[in-house]
Amino acid sequence: MRRKSKKYRTEKHPTTADTGELLWRQQVSLRLVMVPLSDAPSRSSSEDSLSNLEMMAETQRAEEIHGVSVRLHDTEISTAAHEVRINSLESELTKTKNDLIQTQHHVAAMEDHRRWNNVKIRGLAESVTTAEIHHLIRRVLSRLFMPKQAKARLLEGCYRLPQPQANSQQTSRDVIVRFQHSPDKQAFLSAVRITTPYQFEGHSLLFYPDISRATMTWWRSMRPPTTVRMQHSRWGAP
Fold first, then answer.
1. Over the stretch 147-169, which tens digit does the pLDDT of each residue have?
2. Which of 19, 25, 111, 145 reaches 20 to 30 Å from 216, CA-CA?
3. Section 91-101 average pLDDT
4. Average pLDDT in the 2-27 region?
C-alpha cells in the first residue's frame, strides 16, 4: 500500500502554464501548415497567367509569320509578272531596234540609189562658178578619154553643197557632179583614182563616190574586199 501511494505522489499533473504553451505550439504549427496552403492558389494563378501570355505571344507570332509569308508570296507573284513583262518589253525593244536598223538600211539604199550617178569633187576654189565647173569636168573627161567619148558622156548637172555650220568659211565646199549613166561614172572614177590627188589646171582635185554616211560607214568596215575589187578595176561597193 505504501508503494502505491508513493507512486501517486511522484506523478506530475499539467499546470495552466503548460497548457498555454501547448496551445501556443499548436497554433504555430497550424500557421506553418496554413501558410503554404494559403499561397497555393496565388501560385497557380500566376502560372496560369504566364501560360496564357505565352500562348497569346505564340499565337501573335504565328499570325505575324503567316502575314509575312502571304505578303512574300504575293511579292513573288508580282515579281514574276514583272519579269514576264520586262522580258516581253525587251523582246519588243530588240524587234524595234532591228526594224529601225532595217528601215535605216532601206532609207540609205534609196538615198544611194538616187545619188548613185553622182561624183563628189573636193578641192575646187569657191571662185569657180557652177558653169565653169561643168566645162572643167568636160575638159577632165577630154583628157582622160578620147574627145568623141567625152562628148558622149554627157553630164546632167553640177552644184556645190551647202556650207556646214561647223566648217570654216575658208574651206571650199564640195561639188556634186551627176552623170547620166552609171557606167560613165564608174569609168570616170576608175580613171581619176590612178593619181590622187588629180592635178588639173592648177587645181588639186579629189574625187569620191557620192554616198550616204551609213553606206560609207559600211564601206569602211568592208574595206578589205573593196580594196581587192578596186585592184581588179571594180569601183564601188562589194
1. 555 555 577 878 888 876 555 55
2. 145
3. 93
4. 55
